[in-house]
Amino acid sequence: MLRDKEPGSFVVRDSHSFRGAYGLAMKVATPPPSVLQLNKKAGDLANELVRHFLVECTPKGVRLKGCSNEPYFGSLTALVCQHSITPLALPCKLLIPDRDPLEEAPDSPPQTAANSAAELLKQGAACNVWYLGSLEMESLTGHQAVQKALSATLAQQPPPLSTVVHFKVSAQGITLTDNQRKLFFRRHYPVSSVIFCALDPQDRKWVADSQACRVFGFVARKQGSATDNVCHLFAEHDPEQPASAIVNFVSKVMIGSPRKI
Q1: What angle do CA 10, 24, 199 make, to 5 degrees?
Q2: Which residues of the chain does CATH 2.30.29.30 include?
Q3: What is residue 34's three-state secondary structure?
Q4: Beta-bridge partners for 14
Q5: Facing residues of 130 across strands?
Q6: Which of the four CATH numbers 2.60.120.10, 3.90.1210.10, 3.40.50.300, 2.30.29.30 does domain 124-255 have?
């Protein structure tokens, strides 16, 4: 199924050999060096362009088995999204499909990028992050809003207290849950109100528990307003649940999908 696809194309299935794990099959551009050393014929080499990896499920999360430089991810979706940004231990980046590779029948409707995004949103993604605060931005949005909000937050004296919240992205939007109820119990931002999400463009860090953590934020419409925005800031709580994967999921899957008016 993957032999005629471009490098980075992939399929994830339940593993038949390891119960509770997933099998990741992906198309690569070149065979592994060990295969090239065998001086196989071109036809045989073509069979080596589909590589197989095992995704194990552990109490810490999901990760590629046998790859020490691979982090744990909060969900299979987060793992796929992160590897579409950077290959990490994989031979190349994963290519998010515009259509379901299993749907090859000519009479079946093509799987669009919007449909793929909808399927990912059904699974959702969630992890714990540091909540730094929310700042009103008037009509400002984009990277400038995240940059301005973080500059104002870092300039506060004394610095604001950060607290751990559960950050969940779903088809309904973004839901924050403060499990310890230090600042709030639960806040929900509907998908129609979320405008933008990105890492701090200056890559400044937030120090929490003696760790320098990457910062990201999302911009949402202020409740009851059609023009004013609020930027909500967060920092990585666990490096094994990278901020870049969260941003990529929100930006490409949630914000990037067409919305019903």
Answers
A1: 70
A2: 124-255
A3: helix
A4: 22
A5: 164, 235
A6: 2.30.29.30
Tokens found for residue 239: 């490096």
Q: Where are the beta strands (DSSP E) in the chain?
A: 10-14, 22-27, 50-58, 61-64, 125-138, 163-170, 173-177, 186-190, 194-199, 205-208, 211-221, 229-236
pLDDT tens for each residue of the chain, 261 residues long: 777 788 888 888 888 888 888 999 898 888 777 655 555 554 556 667 888 899 998 888 888 998 877 888 878 888 888 888 888 889 898 887 665 555 544 444 444 444 455 555 555 677 889 999 999 999 999 999 999 999 999 999 888 888 999 998 887 889 999 878 888 888 999 988 999 999 999 999 999 888 899 999 999 999 888 889 999 999 998 766 778 878 877 887 666 644 433
Please, where in the chain does CATH 3.30.505.10 lie? 10-111
Q: Across 98-146, where does the E strand assignment appear? A: 125-138
SS3 content of the chain, % helix, strand, coil (to 5): 25, 35, 45
Architecture of the domain defined by 10-111: 2-Layer Sandwich (3.30)
Contact call for residues 53 and 90 (beta carbons, < 8 A): yes
Q: Is the pTM of this model over 0.70?
A: no
